[in-house]
């Protein structure tokens, strides 16, 4: 017993007897947090407000929103849902829709319409169709509503917002969406 009393009074590693080592790391952070809470409580009392009551029992721990038995974003997801999320965030959804529409064109619109026109472009929901004659271009324009509805039923809502039908056209020297207005190549034609 005398040995225990003597060992508690002997300084260890240069410490003064009866003093604790200075707080470090997590202990220092906890002490700073407790001091901030105390200062906040004193400020609230001085202003006449009631002190805040912490939830979660004596330990003061708060439940996190994602804990519990319900589904959570951190749960394993099906591969199809993960792929849909990736396609949406990567911005490849429009290209994928275009490729699927062009590949399944005859199946979606039917063989009669598919024999007389082909899809040319799909940009921002505007589908452009090239018809084999002006009569078929007119017919496609009149059937645009049901065709767009059929496409959206097959490909997903709002895949195509409007349909434009063009008839056959002569050769053009315009490439891309931007061009410089002018006469064009006139020296070849007379």
From TrEMBL:
Pfam families: DciA (PF05258). This is DUF721 domain-containing protein. Residues 1-11 have a biased composition (Polar residues). Residues 29-49 have a biased composition (Low complexity). Residues 1-77, 163-190 are annotated as: Disordered. It comes from Nakamurella flava. It comes from the Bacteria.
């Amino acid at each position: 017993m005398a040995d225990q009393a003597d060992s508690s009074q002997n300084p260890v590693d240069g410490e003064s007897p009866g003093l604790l080592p200075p707080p470090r790391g997590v202990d220092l952070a906890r002490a700073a947090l407790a001091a901030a809470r105390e200062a906040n409580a004193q400020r609230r009392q001085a202003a006449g407000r009631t002190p805040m009551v912490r939830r979660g029992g004596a330990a003061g721990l708060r439940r996190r929103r994602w804990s519990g038995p319900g589904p959570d974003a951190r749960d394993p997801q099906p591969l199809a849902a993960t792929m849909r999320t990736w396609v949406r965030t990567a911005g490849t959804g429009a290209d994928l829709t275009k490729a699927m529409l062009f590949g399944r064109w005859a199946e979606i619109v039917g063989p009669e319409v598919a024999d007389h026109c082909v899809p040319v472009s799909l940009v921002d929901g505007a589908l452009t169709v090239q018809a084999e004659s002006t009569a078929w271009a007119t017919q496609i324009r009149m059937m645009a509503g049901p065709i767009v509805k059929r496409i959206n039923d097959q490909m997903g809502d709002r895949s195509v917002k409007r349909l434009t039908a063009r008839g056959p056209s002569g050769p053009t020297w315009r490439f891309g969406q931007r061009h410089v207005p002018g006469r064009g190549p006139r020296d070849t034609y007379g």
